[in-house]
Amino acid sequence: MLSKQGVVFLLFFAFASSAAQTAFAQHAGPSAGQSPDQTAPAGPRGKAVETLSGAQALIAATWGCPLVIMYNLRYNDAVGPEPKAAPNSIWRMQDISTPKLSREAGYVTPNVNTLYGFGFLDLGPQPVILSVPDSGGRYYMVEIVDMWTNAFAYAGGVATGYKGGTFALVGPGWKGSLPPRVRRIDCPTRWIMIQPRVHVRESGDLPGARQVLQAITVQGLAQFTGEPAPQAPAYSYAAPDLKDPDLPVSAIDFKDPLQFWEILSAAMNENPPPKDQAKALLPVFDLLGLELGKAWDRSKVNPIVLNSMKTVAANIGAMLSRLPQGANVDGWQIPSPALGNFGTNYLLRAVVARVGLTANTPREAIYYLSGKDREGNWLTGAQRYTVAFTKTPPVIAPGFWSLTMYDAENNYTVPNPIDRYSLGSDNKEMKFNRDGSLTIYVQKESPGPDKEANWLPAPPGNFYLILRSYAPGQEMVKSLTDRTAYAPPTVALVK
After folding, report:
1. Number of C-alpha atoms within 13 angstroms, CB side, residue 35?
2. For 355-375, what is each residue's pLDDT tens digit?
3. Which residues have C-beta within 8 Å of that of residue 171, sequence separation ≥ 6?
4. Beta strands per DSSP E along 51-209
5. Which listed residue, of 2, 110, 355, 394, carries a Cα 20 to 30 Å from 12's Cα?
6. Which region, left, alpha or beta, applies to residue 436 given φ > 0 means left and ψ of -120 to 50 means alpha?
7. pTM of the model
8. 370 and 332 Cβ atoms separated by less than 8 Å
9. CATH of 91-225, one of 3.40.50.720, 1.10.10.60, 2.60.40.1610, 3.30.70.330
């Protein structure tokens, strides 16, 4: 059964398709009702085909772009010519996500209060065993994400605590038995990504955080049990050919926009969507030639339809980067409770994949995003701002909160002369006001020696802020549906 959002989605597009098909029938003359073919003429009939195929292509791209983005990231990090870590292993960052490291990873809007790990796991040959340590009370967690960007499970964090454990990540259709005292996690797609995050309190804390990150390990089930391992697959994935390699892979701006659809088809057949989605949605995309079990072939698509698909693919990344992720409250976007594990909220899933890839579920972490001040003007380094907290975000120990700055042009952290990318609960040198409130100064130049402990440096151009709470307190969780539970800080222009 589809959710309420899924039913609304389908009703809307059924209406759009019906309207376009009616226009087609009214203007097509003797051929009304026939399927469009390679010789569909210009004029009313061609316009009807263009209208319908444009609608289908837009929703198909919105639905499928998270999968394309994950394909790009997998190629960049695991199976391309310069992998960060081979499949079924973990690439561990040795430092926080500086602008340089973020670009190397191709990873947008990174948290800079943790050490990250990334690992793409192929569960086709066998399950993979994930082991996590007792951290001695340090915050960490391992997000487990399917190829459609749903964070469907966690190890560590609020989900399982900080004492450690052993988990079996099991792919679709696997038949077999697991060793005792290993917790089974059934995974929706053959390929998944795991993403450890280990809290770093300050620069001197790096060795301890690295030790915990190093103790988060993966190995095949056969290796874990001492049995012969199955033969490793040979991978021959097409390379994403992107216009600007300096942009994150989530920009999905291909030199040939039609490569978007070739990748979507290949990735979809390798990592199929849930059966109810395939049954309900793929028929809605009938003009586009997208089918499970068959490679998409551009030569078999109506030229008018192909042009619609090309136009949509060329613009989908830029369009999604400008769309909101949640409700607007005093200039802050408050996330949907569906964040992280999206169900049928395909638009939210697409927007988040574009600008905040692999976002967490609210139980584990909550992000508020602001790109505007309280008067609705875009944030820019040409101005000066204050971010005023009446109350700092509540967390469940050993959780933490932070306010982080990002360049709006590339979604990476901002290079600055003091190498400061965030301020939060780890910054004990921050100065609170006498009433317990907190003011952070956001601007390009220093606000002066007496305020520099509370200074978050800005870039020359547009930027945005993310307020994060890891292991959020109940007030933060409740704020996603009750706006009075926790009031976000006020971002105000200094006049």
Report:
1. 8
2. 889 999 999 999 999 999 999
3. 123, 124, 127, 187, 189, 190
4. 91-92, 114-122, 128-132, 140-146, 151-156, 165-170, 183-186, 191-199
5. 355
6. left
7. 0.85
8. yes
9. 2.60.40.1610
